[in-house]
Amino acid sequence: MPRTVAFLGSVNVGGNRVAMAELRAALADAGFANVATVTASGNVLFDHDGTSDAALAARVGDVVAARFGFRTFAAVRTAVEVAAAMADNPFATDGEEKLVHTLFLDGPLSADGFARLVADHRGRERLAAGDRAVHIDYVDGAGPSKLTKTFIEKRIGRQGTARNLRSLARIHAVMTQAQT
């Protein structure tokens, strides 16, 4: 069974508080195998039987809605895809790992959507298109940036949830450690 991560959006932010032990239990109760979490921001690891990413993302979202009372977005990726996202991020070599993010999307990023994002962007942040992702270097920090999740999603027509390089490295290490 492949080791997979579901990056959940809107978990432990904006009032959507979920204890990771409760999240693990909810997914295990729903039939997910070998469930683990990494950090408290909704990074859930599990093994699965080859079900599509879209179906897994929908199941995770349904479990969270049923158990915790709010809808969430889940971007599902394998360890290979997480490693590729880090390697493909053009800002990984010269940006600060806590400021360089990958926004994982619910589907492919269209060229038109990315062009709208770049055209409407008015900040110092650097942007690059990725595979079902947008890579962002929040040069001055994500907190003061006007390049918000809502701003991005409106322009690209996709949902997403972001993780910085430091978090992705930690998640990937746990994913691959579990496979050895």
Automatic annotation (TrEMBL):
SUPFAM superfamilies on file: SP0830-like (SSF160379)
Superkingdom as given in the UniProt entry: Bacteria
Signal peptide: none
InterPro entries noted in UniProt: DUF1697
PANTHER family (alphabetical): BLL4334 PROTEIN, DUF1697 DOMAIN-CONTAINING PROTEIN
Taxon lineage: Bacteria, Pseudomonadati, Pseudomonadota, Alphaproteobacteria, Sphingomonadales
The protein, known as: DUF1697 domain-containing protein
